[in-house]
Write a structure and sequence with these properties.
Layout (H helix, E strand, L loop, with lengths): L2 H20 L4 H12 L3 H14 L6 H8 L5 H23 L2 H10 L3 H23 L12 H11 L3 H13 L9 H27 L4 H29 L1
C-alpha cells in the first residue's frame, strides 16, 4: 500500500467526518420555512427540501456515495453507483411515506439512528475488507469494482436513519392538504431531490481528485475511505447510543 493512497483516503474521510460532526445545521430551518412559504405548491417544496438533504453532510449518504463513487473508472460509473444508492433510499422513502399512519408511532418512540450507523458501518468495513484483501496490492481492474447489489443494500439500510422520520413528519404535516393516494409523492420527490444533490456532490469530489491519480490509485482510495468511514460510523453509533 503506497503512502499516496493512504493520505488521499485519510484526507477524504477526515473531511467528511468533520463536516458531519461540525457543520451547522443551517439548512434545516431553511427547509421548514420553504414548506411554510410555498404552501399549496408543496411538491416543489418537498423537492427543494430533498435537494437540501442531499447537499447536507450526512453520515448516511456522503461516506457511502463518495467512497463508492471514487472507485469507479469514469464519471458515468460514479453517477451509476450514486444512483443505485439514492434509488434505494428513494424506494424506501416512497413506500413508507405511503404507509405513514401504520409506522409513524413506532419511529417516533425509537431512535434508530445509532443502530443504523452501526449496521451501515459494519457493512462498509466488510465490503472494504473483501476488496482490499482481493486486490492483494495489484492494480484494480473493472471486475474488482463493488457489486451494485452491495450498494443497493447500503441504500436500503441507510434509508432508515433520521431522514426517514423527516419524510414521515412531512407526510403528516401535508396529510390535511392532499389525498391519501398522493402521499407517496412526498417520499418520491424528497428522494429524487436528494438523488440529484448527492450526484452533484459526488461529481464535484470525483472531478477534483481524478486528475491527481490513476484509476488503480482511486479504487484503493475508495476502498480505504469506505473502511475508515465505516469505523467512524460505528463509533458515532456507539457514542450516540451511550449518550442518547
Amino acid at each position: 500500500m503506497r503512502g499516496k493512497e493512504l493520505v488521499i483516503a485519510l484526507s477524504i474521510s477526515l473531511g467528511i467526518a468533520i463536516a458531519i460532526l461540525s457543520l451547522p445545521d443551517i439548512l434545516e430551518p431553511i427547509a421548514r420555512e420553504m414548506l411554510l412559504v410555498l404552501g399549496v405548491y408543496w411538491p416543489l417544496a418537498i423537492f427543494i427540501i430533498g435537494i437540501i438533504h442531499g447537499l447536507k453532510p450526512d453520515e448516511h449518504t456522503w461516506p457511502i456515495t463518495v467512497s463508492y463513487g471514487i472507485m469507479q473508472r469514469s464519471v458515468k460509473g460514479a453517477m451509476a453507483s450514486t444512483g443505485v444508492f439514492a434509488g434505494a433510499l428513494t424506494l424506501v422513502w416512497t413506500s413508507l411515506s405511503a404507509l405513514t399512519g401504520q409506522v409513524l408511532s413506532f419511529f417516533q418512540n425509537y431512535d434508530l439512528d445509532p443502530i443504523v450507523d452501526v449496521i451501515v458501518g459494519l457493512t462498509m468495513i466488510g465490503v472494504a475488507a473483501v476488496f482490499l484483501i482481493k486486490d492483494k496490492g495489484e492494480a484494480a481492474d473493472k471486475d474488482n469494482n463493488p457489486d451494485y447489489r452491495l450498494i443497493w443494500i447500503h441504500g436500503l439500510a441507510a434509508a432508515f436513519g433520521g431522514d426517514f422520520i423527516v419524510v414521515l413528519l412531512l407526510t403528516v404535516a401535508l396529510s390535511t392538504l392532499i389525498s391519501v393516494n398522493l402521499t407517496f409523492l412526498i417520499g418520491l420527490l424528497f428522494g429524487v431531490g436528494s438523488w440529484i444533490a448527492q450526484s452533484a456532490v459526488v461529481l464535484l469530489i470525483y472531478k477534483s481528485i481524478v486528475t491527481k491519480a490513476n484509476f488503480g490509485v482511486l479504487a484503493k482510495v475508495g476502498r480505504l475511505s469506505l473502511l475508515f468511514l465505516g469505523i467512524f460510523l460505528i463509533g458515532l453509533g456507539v457514542l450516540s447510543s451511550l449518550t442518547g
